[in-house]
Specification:
Length: 424
Amino acid sequence: MRRRVLLLVGATTSLVLVAFLVPLAILVRDVAADRAVQAATTQAQALSSLIATTDRDSLEVTVTQADQASEHDLTVFLGDGTRLGHAAPRSPLVRLASRGTSASADVSGGREIVFAVREGSGRNAVIRAFVPDDQLRAGVDRAWLLLTGLGVTLLVVSLLVADRMARRLVRSTIALADVSHRLSSGDLSARADPESPAEIGVVARSLNHLGSRIDELLSEERETVADLSHRVRTPLTALRLEAEALTNPEEAERISDGVDAVQRAVTQVIAQARRRSTEPTAGCDAAEVVRERVEFWAALAEDTGRTPRCEIAPGPLQVQPSRGDLAASLDALLGNVFAHTPDGTDFSVRLEARPGGGAVLWVEDDGPGLPESSLAHRGASASGSSGLGLDIARRTARRGGGSLTLGRSPSGGLSVRMELAGVP
């Protein structure tokens, strides 16, 4: 944008300068030529009265002195063919003047001016003045140089002013784009400068209003989710009391564990609902979290006849998602394996270090896998999700600067690749 503004101003200024300076330069040249011709004409006309009243000897002396004192060549051609003053040829213009016609014309090397006058004897005489080119252009080169300098100065000044204006516009535009990127990344406190020039200020005020409105809507959403989550706690408390009232200790313990799990999930929902997306997370050691969750699911795998394969790179592998988010994501992925594959289906969990920091987590099973249409969307079905577990994992990966993709495992089952960015 800055370059375009400079090109536009430079082109416009150049056109204006050309339209102004070229006619002025021509006028200066014509004025200089007219001044030189006028001076020569005045000097030549001063001799016209002497030709009719002065004798031959005095006239010769006078013409010779006038020619020597003048910057121009002065010559007098008398009617008897005598030539006085500068030794000049009898040109066609002189012959024309000898017939009684005064004239002037541009000739090689300058301009020739002739006057037809009458001698005392009644014969026609001719006064010739010749103005050389250097006299016709006296001072023109200097004037043109000054005009060129003036034009260059005006062009430079206009470009400097345009550059300053363009810098301000570009700076305001870049700042506006930066605010837009910050808002899109979740920084709802970002605001543009409403005092930006012209229409950019209008866009800045509109963007600020949009940011404020988004902040208000998200606050309402967080409060609504938190309120609903709090309301769920009441029936959970009732369930806990019912479980404690059971006479069978095993049933009571099993139901209590289920209620505790739901209670933890509700607490996490409340925490996430109230947490601003702009608050940085402390991150966690992915190796430690994955190892812990695999050990937790190992007991259920044994009960359902599954053989887990686990390959975890030695830690620490620091990643951006929090410990709770990563654990919930892995639980959701392993929960999908147990929920959507028959008993006895083996699965594997693999964690590797990511080049440049972070980690890559694979969860693969030997089940039937997802249809090709779901895999083609790389983690998102046509409805925007490939299941609740995948959706939880995908959102966790994206919030942490990573991604989630789906594929086929070597055995034909589902392969989930979860890329986790490292802590800055």
